[in-house]
Amino acid sequence: MKKMLAFILAAALALLPGCNTPAPQAETSQEAPACTLELAGEDLTLEPRQEADGVHIPLEMAAGETLTLAFTATPGCQVKEAASAHNLVAAVVGDQKLILTAAAEGAEEIAVTCGGEGYRDCVVTLEVTVTAPALPLAVTCGLLPQPGEEEPEPETPEEGILPDAVPVEEEPETPLDPAIRYEDGKLALPVAASCALLLEAPEETVYTLTAPEGEAAAEVSLHPEGYLAITGLEVGSCAFTLEASHPDWSAVTLAVEVQVSLPALLVTPEAEGFLLDAPSLEQGKSGYRLTLAGLPEEAKVELRQDNENIAFSLVKEQLSITPKAVGVTKLNLDISCEGFQPLSLEYEFEVTTTKAAFTLNGGKSAATVWVEGSISLPIALGAGAELLLDYPKELVEVERVGNTLSVKGIAPGTAVLSATARKEGLADNLQRVTITVTPHQAVAITLGNRSLAGLIGQSQGVRITTNPAGAKVTISGGGSIADCSYSGGVLTVTPFAPGSATIAVTASKAGYTTSTAYIALTVAAQAGKITLWTSPTYLNLEPGKTGSFTIYATPKDATLKVSATGDFDCQLSGQRGTITAPDEAANGTVTVTASKEGFPEATATVSVTVKMPRDTSNYVQRVFEIVNQERAKVGAAPLVYMDDIQDAADLRARELQTKFSHTRPNGENCSTAVVPYGYSGCGENIAKGQNTPEVVMTGWMNSPGHKRNILDTSYYGIVVGYDSNAWVQLFIPTWAVGSCTYCTGCTTKGSGHGCNSNPALCRCDCAACKKLRENPFCTLCTGCTNTKPNHGCNVDPARCTCICDTCKKLRENPFCTLCTGCTNTKPNHGCNVDPARCTCTCDTCKKLRENPACTLCPGCTNTKPNHGCTGDPATCTCTCDLCKTLGNFYRPCTLCSGCTATGPNHGCTGDPRTCYCTCDGCKKLKEDFQNSLPCLVCTDCTKTGSNHGCTGDPATCTCDCAGCEKWRQLESSKPDPTPEPQPEPEPTPEPEPTPEPEPEPQPEPEPEPTPEPTPEPPPAEGEATPPADGSGETPAP
Predict the structure, then answer these.
(1) Is the pLDDT of residue 992 over 90?
(2) DSSP 97-148
(3) How many Cα atoms within 13 Å fall on the side-chain side of residue 297?
(4) I need a labelling partner for 717 at 20 to 30 A (CA). Which of 121, 177, 305, 849 fits?
(5) What pLDDT was estimated at residue 838?
(6) Given this model, what pLDDT does residue 44 score?
(7) Exposed e or buried b for every residue in 136-160, given b needs 16+ CB within 10 A?
(8) Is the pLDDT of residue 20 over 70?
(9) Rounded to whole angstroms, how far apart are CA atoms 592 and 579?
(10) What residues pair up with 486 in beta bridges, in sequence order?
(11) Which pLDDT belongs to residue 72?
(12) CA–CA separation, 641 and 900 (whole Å)
């Protein structure tokens, strides 16, 4: 029975000290009340303890285990968050429940915060100790394994004698004594009986048995085959323990209590003239008997009945029953025998008046029918009586035909046919027959001929019939000297070499036992004639590949020659011919010629077809494109293609050819493939056998685990590997990319060390990063008056503990600092800096929540809601320059038609002001644009056409118009010749051919460097990581 244990958390010091709220004092009696929180766990005892900083609750979990805690909060309060300190345990706040999933071993602290409007927060810390998962050990009770006996070798038919079809029958399994029972560590076992506890555990599991000491009630032994043998010795009880250990799991201990008792009496009651489960007798009728089959001679039977309506007489094991009066009589049979447990049988007999006349199956209570077979059960029904039938229609079909019931078998099983005769004024007469529906008998095979003899090249046919008709016929054997084909009930045998062989004909059909019959084949060469045959007679080759064929010729000393048409290269070595295909698609024929003096020449041919292989050059790029298309559908940022680890993906694709698993052929985890390239982990999807990118992506997207990896917002980049229909996707998480860009004091440099620009995702363990995660500088409340580090001001107002007035105000009820057009400016109106938490009801805030500001291009200059910036370059319609640039950056150039760099991320944006592609077409486009610009500074310039020399910079302007000349003179006469820096256009310098060229200064505001997908927000705390199983996907570690 499951226990439900709960505790109540209160912020008041008297009830629950340390909930991050001060104890109420007399002078602050008007202070807001604290929230309360009720947690409950199934099969779990929660033991909270009071510490100086609040309440702490210890928990223990195994890695991979999921634990659910139900919670109930004060009306008006809710659980705001459950924050994991070390990301060892994922915590997800659901509907009135907290779901914890342990990911890795270690110590974890989870801060559960409960709060609400008008209430003070209360925080409780869950101290979770994550241990290695327990060793999976399954225990079942069964028969003792018997010593294995060598299977007899299959009989080889003697020459000229072929065996008939023999049905294959399986020996029925010996059932386990029902008195032997094992459940929840308790084993019931009769004296002198034996059983086995079968142990199922991973390989390399080591068992240690602690057997009962002294004279125990049972004997226990551990066998190396993986089971415990237990034998009952005497009545009593004993206990033993078994410890199972494994290098990859924590050890488990199995404790078993054995209860040994006397064996049960195996007495089987058999009724005659009535139904044992509903004993109904007819008054004045005789012939009713109850036989106690298996009753020992020394057993004693005591009869007890509650009235005299029936007379019982027991002679040895047979009880005669004579009904005398109408009514119900209870009969108890108490059976005792030395050395056995006592047995008590109880029956309730009903004596009725005359029943409707009816006999079913001549009084026999059992019958057997084949599946799809039929039997007839005779019935004798009195005049005027109605017959009612009841039976399981999924097993049998029953139809009354005159004075019989026709029973047809439908499916194997045991069916009980109940037939009731009913007539007005008489009692119902119910009779039953237990029908066993068995599988079909063996398929019968009839052969038109059991032996064939002929010459090479002379085909012969053998008619084959089966009963039942429609059985599947397969042919095997004889391939060394003849070609065999079966069609339309006829086996055609065409010999191509002399010798003898046996052809096996196998017939099978659902529900029937498979049968096999044999045909003896003898082949001789034709006198005075060369017989020639090739195997195979056709070949399908790829360009440049070589195929082979075998030549059979009689006489064997005939001279063989080969030739081929077209560009095929054909060679002969003994009886083996080889042919090499050209490097292009073609069809050809190999001609084999056999000659011998005194014999006419013979020829045979081999047809050859050469097909070009599929073009797989764009498979990797196509998979990458489909991945980002799928991510765009759900609003996830596109992944960056990680060219630097392409070799790792190609290696994993090749490894799948030898071992299709997330474990590499060397035994290491798949994520180790990226370690040599500076990354500490990756996620992986694998597949094999799909022939196009579209097919493999459809399969992955239809699999929840693979789909989760493809759409995971915590991933930054992807690389795809392909090798002969083996597919690999490696996903690089955001935290594994690049050196620290946020914690300037980070002491761990280099890529892949876990230091991320988002402190929620940062896993770097250097002192600076740890300090930053605990108390970063204030980056949210810009008016914070406390600027020193470690002052408690956090980027998340829910975690900020800074005591300056600005931070306090922001925590309590911040004014809207995000939706600048908010029309509700009073405090407590619910407008939060985070649109996900904002509950303000003004139209602006509603609109902002529906269409928030740009979350992808951080320099977006259009911050109003509904401006079209979706965070997905594929769907973004924002008109600001940065969004345009970002949108164009993720697709090939659509403006510069002469662009020779058409792949994504090559810098060609389609906008000459921001394009920094180094191809000739883009260079020309930018130069033409610069030359077409009118004067931007000298407003008196009288030349507005292109190429007139007016650059907007007095140092470079060569325009000879009066306005430009006057402007240059004014600029040169100023005391300080250095002008204020302005976004003036400069001639476009020739860019250097670097892989990632820097953007050039343009008249418009300078674009950001190569846009990269902005790191997605951290996954919701507690979100489960995709499981690493045989489904084919594995998460980043």
Answers:
(1) no
(2) EEEEEE-SSEEEEEEEEEE-TTSB-EEEEEEEEEEPPBP--EEEEEPPPPPP
(3) 0
(4) 849
(5) 73
(6) 81
(7) ebebebeeeeeeeeeeeeeeeeeee
(8) no
(9) 12
(10) 491
(11) 85
(12) 20
- Per the CB < 8 A criterion, the answer to whether 705 and 1027 are in contact is yes
- Separation CA 580–CA 583 (nearest Å): 10
By DSSP bridging, strand 318-323 and strand 288-293 are antiparallel
Residue 681's pLDDT band (boundaries 50, 70, 90)?
confident
In what order do the strands lie in the sheet containing 181-183? 181-183, 186-190, 249-261, 236-246, 206-210
Burial (Cβ within 10 Å: 0-12, 13-18, ≥19) of residue 504 = middle
Q: Would you call 626 helix, strand, or coil by DSSP? A: helix
Q: Which has the higher per-residue pLDDT, 638 or 885?
A: 638
Structure tokens at 713: 């917002």
Flag whether pLDDT at 165 surpasses 70: no
**Residue the block writes with tokens 């004075």:** 403
Structure tokens at 377: 């059960």
CA end-to-end distance (rounded Å), the chain: 37
- Give the model confidence (pLDDT) of 836-853 as tens digits: 667 777 777 777 666 555
- The token duo for 228 is 């415990």
Q: Which of 483, 487, 459, 484 is CA-nearest to residue 473?
A: 487
> What pLDDT is attached to residue 743?
61
Closest CA to 419 of 434, 431, 428: 431
E strand residue ranges, 215-287: 218-223, 227-232, 236-246, 249-261, 268-272, 280-282
How would residue 307 be classed by pLDDT, with cut points 50, 70 and 90? very high
Give the separation between CA 68 and CA 264, rounded to whole angstroms.
45
Average pLDDT of span 328-339: 92
DSSP letters for 335-391: EE-TTS--EEEEEEEEEESPBPPEEEGGG--EEEEEBT-EEEEEEEE-TT-EEEEE-
| Per-residue pLDDT at 156 | 40
Whether pLDDT at 652 is above 80 = yes
Q: Which pLDDT score is estimated for 399?
A: 94
CB 417 within 8 A of CB 387: no
HEC states along 453-509?
EEECCCCEEEEEEEECCCCEEEEECCCCCEEEEEECCEEEEEECCCEEEEEEEEEEC
Q: What is the amino acid identity at position 580?
A: T
What rounded mean pLDDT belongs to the chain?
Answer: 76
Measure the CA–CA gap between 8 and 590, rounded to whole angstroms. Answer: 89
Q: Which one has a higher pLDDT value, 877 or 545?
A: 545
- In this prediction, residue 287 carries a pLDDT of 86
Name the percent of the chain in helix, strand, coil, to the closest 5. Answer: 10, 35, 50
pLDDT at residue 1026, rounded to an integer: 35
DSSP H or E run through 646: helix 646-656
The DSSP result for 889-917, as a single string, is HTS--SS-TT-S--STTSS--S-TTT---
1013 pLDDT band, cuts 50/70/90, is very low
Of the candidates 832, 829, 823, 830, the residue with the CA atom closest to the CA atom of residue 780: 832
Give 181's DSSP letter.
E
Query: Strands 586-595 and 640-641: what pairing?
Result: unpaired
- Distance between CA 783 and CA 227 in Å, rounded? 72
How many other β-carbons are positioned within 10 Å of the β-carbon of residue 1037?
17
No. of helices (H) and no. of strands (E), the chain: 10, 56
H or E, element range at 686: strand 683-688
Tell me the C-alpha distance between 436 and 413, whole Å.
6
- Taking the C-alpha atoms of residue 532 and residue 591, their distance in angstroms, rounded to an integer, is 11
Q: Are strands 404-409 and 343-352 parallel, antiparallel or unpaired?
A: unpaired
Query: Are the C-beta atoms of residues 853 and 865 closer than 8 Å to each other?
Result: yes
Cβ-Cβ contacts under 8 Å for 873 (sequence gap 6 or more) = 638, 856, 886, 887, 889, 890, 891
How many angstroms separate the CA atoms of 792 and 795, rounded? 10
What pLDDT sits at residue 414? 93
- Nearest-angstrom CA–CA distance, 558 and 530: 8
